[in-house]
Amino acid sequence: MQWANASEFFAMGGYALYVWGSFGVCAVAMITEPLLVRHRRKQAIKNIRNNYFS
Amino acid sequence: MINWFKYSAPSTFYPLAGRMIPVFWTMAAILGAIGLYISFFVAPTDAQQGEGYRIIFIHVPASWMSMFIYCIMAFWSLLGLTFNTRLSGMMSSALAPTGALFAFLSLWTGALWGKPMWGAWWVWDARLTSELILFFLYIGFMALQAAIDDPRRADRAGALLSLVGVVNVPIIYFSVKWWNTLHQGASVSLTKSPSMASTMLWGMLIMALAFWAYTIAVALMRARTIMLEREANTEWVQHLPDVKEAA
Predict the structure, then answer these.
(1) Cα A15–A12–B112 angle (5° rounding)?
(2) How far is B42 from chain A (nearest CA, A)?
(3) Backbone angles phi, psi at B211, to 5 degrees
(4) How many interchain CB pairs under 8 A, A with B?
(5) What is the ipTM, given to two decimal places?
(6) Which residues of A are less than 8 Å from B40 in CB distance?
(7) Domain residues for B147?
């Protein structure tokens, strides 16, 4: 373990912008993508219900 | 022998994929947690690059996945053109957005790594430029498919594009050898022992496995959705429990 405390961890030895900018965007992308797919799936199911069951 | 053609029917593939998705999500979450722990708490500070090098733990796996997904897409395209199965085109279409995402993440994390280490967000270097072309190939594939109304024709056009574009993948991979570039050489080589600390290597490999599990999970989800969209008029879709019950 190389971090003495939390603020040292978040500072990333002066590279905070670059390290957190990379990991942050990656996390946002990998959370958003499955949510978008889930939305598309719900939409597809809704369309089938509207067009074929009624 | 397994009858692979049986699983190439969307009606048999759909429930099978449904059972696999939670397994791969679980794998992705566990491997991702271990990988992040190694990235930030186990891997030592780099002698030259300080803490800035930690970007490697997502940059390299994202780059690998962007190339790997393109190869899988080309493989499905070849199957689709050869056997004319519906599933192949659905799988290619399901993989393309995730591949594009990883190509983007590779470029994004690369820019954020390049700025502090090289002093530039971007350089027109062989490795970076060929990865940018890969990103455009994914976008081109998606745009081409979206532009053609008949899904079967869209699949064939997309399959041709992805097969022609696959030539770019070895160019990316070998670019650091073939040209003088600013980009460092391959992080992991099959022919010589790794040049980095083994904890760094493990962190990278575990993150790559997490990304791989994520890709399978999200691509299967998208493939199932594409099946619902394209085969909405069929009996098997209308009789699915997912469609009949309240969502």
Answers:
(1) 30
(2) 6
(3) -65, -35
(4) 95
(5) 0.93
(6) 9
(7) 21-42+55-230
